[in-house]
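Backbone Fold Data
Goal — fold tokens
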Amino acid sequence: MRWLFADQHNEEEAARVKEKVAAIDHWWEAFQKKALTLEKLIAGKSKMNLAKFMEDTLQAIDPNLMWEYGPAVRQEGNRLVITPESRRFLRPMVRTILERAPKMPGWEFYPYRLAETLEVAILNVKSRVDVDITGALVDASVAPGRKVDLDFAFPNQPELDDDTAMQAAFVAAETLMGEQVLDTWIGTIGLMDGAPLSGSRPFPLELTQAAVATLIRGCMEQLPHERTQDISIEDGWATVKLDPPEEADDYPARSDLVMASTRNMELFQAFHSGHAFTSACHSRLHEVFCYLKLDAAEIEGGQIVEFRAKFEAALNPELVAAGLGGCIGGGSGLRYAYIDLALTDVKRAAPILRKVLSEHGAPLRSWLLFHDDDYSGEWIGIYGQTPPPPQ
């Protein structure tokens, strides 16, 4: 279910959100009542069925919420991590959960598993994969899409099979990087195969955190200080052709896209790379990269570009004048027309999108959707009667 942009005028959707919020508040009430017992349990001075408690309270909000207790970072005490792990569409809900957390002395709450020390990483891999990664080497490099690829080698484990080595590499990366860096910046995690890439030099495992931080900092420093260019800039555009998918009754996300135009090929490739996408990797101005999806089923195939262009021409000046971003590209699919957007404030931009598109006759099945994996469950319908987008 969508969370940030749930329609409060839709009785069914509003009721689901209200039910979830009630479950969130019940969880925190139960947590406060059990806090002393939890502290004693963590200190080894009490017993309780912790898994059952978390299942009945936290996971009553959503069964896909995972949790982890550990020592506090900024004070004496304990920390609790609440994370949806790979189900990143739940992250907006997790943020709400933590926003409603009570202030409790001796407790810290986090939405991501934190980065750990080398010693913890070695112990974690040993306990989960039964591999001692002492002496491991790592090769880190910036890949297309502004991701950092990590390749591991385990010279002290020459008999290690590739499947087990891959598991060890992933657990090591996850533990050393922390979940937020892993989700946001890490691309491919693999094994060294022969000589490292030209210009790169494998380094000891203990230098991984510093090396990756340096690469990330370099990526951020290269970002422009200006907002993403909109379609009013006439030069520098490229046309991209994609292999068409098999014909179907409907297409989720941008799966029917066959032709696109863009001024930023790196950004376009990041949209379609298959890696997790985070807008913060591509803008220092807090832009959110999203897109309009317009049903063009009734439009002749050769007219989709013109169909899309009339909305772009009307919408872009309005967004630019309001200082909320602009249209930064577009595309045509087997069924849908797409308009790429960079928005600095989605909630303020939404009324403009609805007004302009409705005035120019956008189809009922028209949505604002998001490239960010954290927002993959979110959408805004252009009309109050707009149904959910195809999933």
User: Anything to note?
Assistant: The chain has a mean pLDDT of 95. DSSP finds ten helices and 14 strands in the chain.
